[in-house]
Amino acid sequence: MSGHTCRRAAVAVLSAAALWSPAAQAAAVADSPRPVVERLPEQDVRVAVAAARAPAAVDLARSNLGIPAGQSAALRVDDRGTVVHHLDPAFAERGGRLPLAVPGYVAVTAHADDGRAVTLQIARVAPAGGGAPRWAAVAAAQDATEAGLARGLEADEVLFESQGPRGREWYALDDRALRPLTEGRGRSGPPKTVTIARYTEALRERAASAGPAVPPAAADRTHRSGDRPWFLVGVAAVVAAGCFAALRHRRGRADRHR
Fold first, then answer.
1. Percentage of residues in the chain with pLDDT exceeding 90?
2. Global confidence as pTM
């Protein structure tokens, strides 16, 4: 192995170590030209809210509230909706590249005469016969969770729903961090804000834990993303040592043949 090749190998390994470091992950989020949150245009929100007044959506809301089809009962549908964001399914496939969150559905609350509320989930649906997707009610829940949580959002935050290890969790999400809006099951103490970099790291750790079983010899040690850079630095040191030994061997042979 030549000295030039050795240097290239060591530099490659050290570069990989730098890319896997938590600091590099945080810098990637900060410097990314793409936004953390893909926002739904206001025009689309208005179309989704209008779809909540369609006969099929109103029937779904009445059914959820237990109002018989033939019974005359007023149902007032709100004139505004809350966009609920979900983790982009392609986020992991892109290796953690942004955007992190994409619009999942628009929540529109409808109110019955007796004070009960139902939330209609309005999402883009592809027609069975083909054609462009259209906004339609896809589900209903007998509460006003999304509207209530939206009142706690700051101007630059969106509502983010996450299905985590503790179940369904709600966050206020902006370009820097996720702020818990509800107490998660099994969580002790007040909810803490999570940076985008830390949340991304947690997603990576969760995906790794769901992968192949860890061999017994390696299972005794807790693995974190921060361990990887030091492992790669060690590999670089081994590469450098091997190169040094190879160069000494070559020089020794050259001296004997002079």
1. 47
2. 0.67
